[in-house]
Specification:
This protein is an alpha+beta fold. It contains 15 helices and 16 strands. It is 53% helix and 16% strand. It has a five-stranded antiparallel β-sheet with strand order 1-3-8-5-6, with no helix packed on it. The longest helix is centred in the N-terminal third of the chain and has 36 residues. It holds the Pfam family GGDEF.
Length: 545
């Protein structure tokens, strides 16, 4: 599968690269000397080493010394060496002029240019000698007018700044979520985005111009390898948690941990330890693990998504474009193909796109968990028979209502409703009819509720109704209205004449009331109604608050 995916990427890169050929501004390149003799080598993502220059590519340099002849008539020409990576490039102009030596990791490069290319100002159209040392990839070179390069460079900087701004903003936002929620996936996401941003800045060279990051230049190319590998390891754990891959695809997730975390962790130890002394093997091993891990991750996400893993779909939307662009860029660099604008600008933009999509997935994940929590809470607070709040639920709501009454100074009244002779209804007609009576009463009362009113069942045939904003007079009128409605409309329930009536007690909340005392006072008024002959409303007289 990795071979097929890699082949498809190579074909796509080659096809797109032929569409937009870069104007090189170079008349010819002649070798003065080359690197020590070695067997002919072909570039590739698994062959990261010194390269022999291909004579069919006059704009590509390998290790050695070269004579570069710019085209004539160019105003303020600049010799550009694109994506130098680990190479040290020295340019010697006319006799007597000092040589100019540059590497990507120098903190003191000309600050008026970005670092996607080493920039060497030329005195004119005379040939210059270029010496290349330590190149691990074929180097693309060009000679452009200063104005043209600055225009392209400005676009590069704008795209990179936009992408970095998005990554920093999203990562900080998610980090704040982690600080509040303490859920590991948010911390892993923030760490993954931070490491990918750091890798982007280092691979483009911009990190070495920033005051807080220029110290990384002492590590050179191995520092980039370390950051890239650590980013892969953190991202693997983020994907496992984000898409719940351990649950949906346990075997594939175990493979991801080995390919993307355990083995790279061993490689990182070998990279930082003094043994082995030579580290040239690391990029090849890292590239292989990178491709294998991403291929396995995409397979695991596809399987998890097809099995119902909703958040695996978010990762696929975000991850597949990023993997394609990352692999395409690595292939073009390693094979000596010019990096086209769509890829040069596209990689940081796709990284920002991936960050936003994954953040949206985290928001959806948070919303899903909230809905599940609310559903569970609703089930815990609801009476299964009538659908209104149970005792715990209504007491909780009344507690908030009392607090709001004291804070806002608005009245609050409570009705305590008890169905008359309900035991006789159950005994005579059965519990199914009795349950129907309870539901009928709830439907009738619910139709009379206003915003803020709270209805709950305490148990059996007892209900309480909290009336927000209602004083004792208004609550009494409401109670009388409900009593008449129940007497009239609940006489016949489910085709059986049950002659249902209700006794109601009314109490207005005072400054000293708690939920328990308010219910107790309304209950006392209801018992007065019961002893007074049932099917009536009684009001609890106000007490000192």
């Amino acid at each position: 599968m990795i071979r097929q995916w890699l082949l498809a990427t190579v074909v796509g890169v080659m096809a797109l690269s032929s569409v937009h050929a870069r104007e090189q501004g170079i008349a010819r390149i002649d070798p003065l000397s080359t690197a020590p003799a070695q067997p002919a080598q072909s570039a590739g993502i698994f062959a990261e080493r010194d390269f022999v220059r291909d004579p069919n590519r006059p704009s590509v340099l390998a290790n050695g010394r070269w004579r570069v002849q710019p085209v004539a008539g160019m105003e303020e020409p600049l010799l550009l060496v694109y994506h130098p990576y680990s190479a040290r490039v020295t340019v010697q102009g006319a006799a007597g002029t000092p040589p100019m030596a540059q590497t990507l990791f120098q903190p003191d490069l000309d600050p008026q240019y970005s670092r996607h290319a080493l920039v060497f100002p030329l005195a004119g159209s005379d040939a210059v000698e270029v010496s290349v040392q330590g190149a691990r990839y074929p180097l693309q070179v060009a000679v452009l007018p200063r104005a043209s390069h600055i225009a392209r460079d400005l676009t590069q900087v704008r795209v990179l700044l936009l992408s970095c701004g998005v990554l920093v903003g999203v990562a900080l936002t998610v980090l704040l979520f982690w600080a509040v929620l303490r859920e590991r996936v948010y911390l892993l996401y923030a760490a993954s985005m931070a490491l990918q941003l750091l890798f982007l800045l280092c691979s483009y060279g911009e990190a070495y111009a920033l005051p807080l990051l220029r110290g990384l230049s002492v590590f050179g190319a191995p520092g980039i390898w370390f950051i890239a590998t650590l980013s892969t390891m953190v991202t693997v754990y983020m994907l496992l948690d984000y898409a719940a891959l351990r649950t949906w695809v346990p075997r594939l997730s175990a493979g991801m941990r080995w390919l993307g975390a355990y083995i790279p962790g061993v490689l990182l130890l070998l990279l930082v330890l003094p043994w082995p002394a030579r580290k040239e093997w690391f990029p090849n091993a890292g590239n292989l693990l990178f491709l294998a891990t991403n291929a396995l991750a995409i397979l695991a996400l596809l399987v998890a998504w097809r099995r119902g893993g909703r958040h695996a779909g978010f990762v696929l939307i975000a991850w597949v474009p990023l993997v394609f662009f990352s692999t395409a860029r690595a292939l073009q660099l390693s094979m000596g193909i010019p990096i086209e604008p769509w890829l040069q600008y596209g990689l940081p933009l796709v990284l920002a796109f991936s960050a936003v999509v994954l953040a949206l997935g985290l928001a959806d994940r948070m919303l899903t968990f909230r809905q599940e929590r609310d559903t569970a809470q609703a089930h815990a607070e609801r009476d299964w028979l009538t659908g209104v709040m149970n005792r715990a639920g209504i007491e909780h709501r009344l507690d908030w209502a009392i607090l709001n009454t004291r804070r806002e100074g608005v009245p609050l009244s409570l009705l305590f409703l008890d169905l008359d002779n309900f035991k006789q209804v159950n005994d005579r007609f059965g519990h199914e009819v009795g349950d129907g009576c309870l539901r009928a009463v709830v439907r009738l009362i619910s139709g009379e509720l206003q915003y803020g009113d709270q209805l709950g069942r305490l148990g059996g045939e007892e209900f309480v109704l909290g009336l927000a904003g209602a004083d004792r007079g208004r609550a009494t009128a409401m109670a009388e209205h409900l009593r008449r409605q129940i007497e009239a409309q609940c006489r016949i329930v489910e085709g059986i004449e049950v002659a249902l009536t209700v006794s109601i007690g009314v109490a207005e909340c005072n400054g000293a009331d708690t939920v328990a005392s308010l219910i107790k006072r309304a209950d006392g008024a209801m018992y007065v109604a019961k002893h007074g002959g049932r099917n009536r409303v009684e009001v609890q007289e106000a007490t000192a608050g």
